[in-house]
Amino acid sequence: MSSLARPSTTTIIAATVGTLVTGFVAYAIYFDHKRQTDPEFRKALKRESRREARIARTQAEAHGAQQKEAIKAAVDAAKEEGFPTDVEDKEAFFMTEVARGETLCQDGSDQVEAALCFYKALKVYPQPSDLISIYDKTVPKPVLDILAEMIATDPSISVGRFGGSDAGSQHGIDD
Fold this sequence. Notes:
Blueprint: H1 9-37, H2 39-81, H3 87-107, H4 111-124, H5 128-138, H6 141-153, H7 167-170
Helix pairs in contact: 1-2, 2-4, 2-6, 3-4, 4-5, 4-6
């Protein structure tokens, strides 16, 4: 005999959602007010931001050092394997390595391995500076950067006008 009706489920859900949204908006307003007015809170936020930036920078440096070690190890391994000396073998080796490098670049799976393929092809190519200019136009920049590091670790590659202080004399250009 109660004349009060029980609230419906949708009314209860709507009231709950309304309460949660109101609480969230109130917290956002409180946080914004505290951020704008409390100097200690702002300092804490800046400290946290600097700490996160320092951690990110440290991780990036560690990753860069690991990549340099991987590049050096890959170049050393390639040198140990050796390179063909016969003209026909060099041509076949060159074509195989360039094809492998292009495939790895398209996959995007292992940039160091792709750069290593291009490095091996460069080692057997008779005019490395010409091939580098071709690579510059066709190879993706991240792989090209790794390739440049590989070339820098191997002084036996004569890259002509792209490296060294005697670049002009290698091409018959005199001052």
